Amino acid sequence: MRYHQLGLLHHDPQRSFAGYTLVAPLRHSAVFLVDMEGAEVHRWELPGPLGSKAYLLPGGHLLFSTFTQEGTPIKEAKGGHIYEMDWDGNIVWEHVDHDQHHDIRRLDNGNTVYIAWEEMSNDEQARVQGGLPGTERDGKTYSDIFREVNPAGEVVWEWHLKDQVIEDFPLAPDCERFEFAHSNSCAPTPDGNYLVNFRSLDTMGVIDRASGDFLWKRTDRHWGHPHNPEMLPNGNVTFYANGMFNPSQPLHSRAMEMNPSTGEIVWQFTDPQRWTFFSPIMGSVQRLGNGNTLTIEAVFGRIIEVTPGSDLVWDYINPVFHNIPIFGGDANPLFRAYRYAGDSEEIGGRL
Questions:
Q1: In angstroms, rounded to a whole number, what is the distance separating the alpha carbons of residues 261 and 209?
Q2: Confidence class of residue 247 from pLDDT cuts 50, 70 and 90?
Q3: Band of the pLDDT at 1, cuts 50, 70, 90?
Q4: Are 236 and 259 in contact (CB under 8 A)?
Q5: Residues 125, 141: contact at Cβ < 8 Å?
Q6: I need a surface site. Which of 64, 172, 215, 216 has the fewest CB within 10 A?
Q7: Domains of the chain in sequence order
Q8: 3-state secondary structure labels for all residues of the chain
Q9: pLDDT of amino acid 245
């Protein structure tokens, strides 16, 4: 894509949600906050290239992972070394798991939950349904784990996808078989369970932490490999529907809100010219305090804020381009983006 302008493209101060936006360029060595005018106001220099996720904790600390070469041969959205860094850039906690990928969350009790890979046995791998034949990596398939560790780094809880009835979770027909099943989110719910998502299954649901069973799950191939489900206070779920491989529609992505009890989509955003809002991979949705929604075109590094009526009130393009081999050269992608109010626990009194 040719960019005619970088940084802030549009700002409607009367209707946007005032605050600071965390910009975390994928595989870059820095994460920064920008104000509503797109000016950088704070920066963290990282000890390595960003794996994928970075977000602020109460108290102004940054939780993130950096990319490591060790671990499984899968490199897409891989982390491997998790850090907590204070506002001034000091490392206050770290944990190494070279199989960690995608999401990381700090729990209220101080524990940390994240996603990891594990190699499947030949028998388990043979039971995986769907996907593109012959697309295993080094002849292997790797399954997802949700892993919770305490501050000492001790594993206190795990959930293994391969322990489920594998045949009940078929991969989408277009997906490669080296992953079962490309989870990208493990969000804690208010009642202590986990809202999870599997891109290659087009499936999301809530796992009961005590039993390991799904309390509910929904699958919809029209979502086109979704990302980032988050539970709202009313129990609805926002998420990013990437829109891949939907033959009935032109390629386009949607920011959505769903009632998980009924499956009804109660709100959604996409550009009227649908193909102008699209990210085939990654993506995030954040409901803001004034009812607006922050979402991204991840592969193009674009962050936008829209009203409930889908009016565009903030538009920003990540100006940081650097060489990313999996993107074929210089690129400016973002895994997720977050907006924090000036008086929030994450920012208050620091800017």
A1: 19
A2: low
A3: low
A4: yes
A5: yes
A6: 216
A7: 7-340 (2.130.10.10)
A8: CCCCCCEEEEECCCCCCCCEEEECECCCCEEEEECCCCCEEEEEECCCCEEEEEEECCCCCEEEEEECCCCCCCCCCECEEEEEECCCCCEEEEEECCCEEEEEEECCCCCEEEEEEEECCHHHHHHCCEEECCCCECCECEEEEEEEECCCCCEEEEEEHHHCCHHHCCEEEEEECCEECCEEEEEECCCCCEEEEEHHHCEEEEECCCCCCEEEEEECHHHCCCEEEEECCCCCEEEEECCCCCCCCCCCCEEEEECCCCCCEEEEECCCCHHHCCCCCCCCEEECCCCCEEEEEHHHCEEEEECCCCCEEEEEECCCCEEEHHHCEEECCECCCEEECCCCCCCCCCC
A9: 82
- Give dist(CA 51, CA 77) in Å, integer: 6
Structure tokens, 105 = 């969350």
Angle at the Cα of 311 from the Cα atoms of 18 and 268, rounded to 5 degrees: 105
Owner of token pair 């995030």 = 284
83 C-beta neighbours (distance < 10 Å), count: 24
Residue 275 makes CB contacts below 8 A (sequence gap 6+) with 250, 251, 252
Task: Enumerate the β-bridge partners of residue 232.
Answer: none
Q: Distance (Å, rounded) from C-alpha 212 to C-alpha 160?
A: 9
Instruction: Identify the CA nearest to 66 among candidates 41, 113, 31.
Output: 31
Kindly report the backbone phi and psi dihedral angles of residue 291, in degrees, each rounded to the nearest multiple of 5, phi listed first. 95, -10
* CA gap 249, 256 in Å, rounded: 16
Going 237 to 242 to 245 to 250, the CA torsion angle's sign is positive
Residue 311: both structure tokens together: 């009016």
**pLDDT, tens only, 198-217:** 999 999 999 999 999 999 99
Do 116 and 94 meet the contact criterion of CB atoms below 8 Å apart? Answer: no
In Å, what is the CA distance from 277 to each residue of 199, 260, 297, 304, 314? 19, 25, 7, 10, 14
Structure tokens at 210: 């005590």
Token couple for 115: 């996603």
Task: Calculate ∠ Cα 113-115-118, nearest 5°.
Answer: 130
Q: Which two tokens stand for residue 325?
A: 């081999």
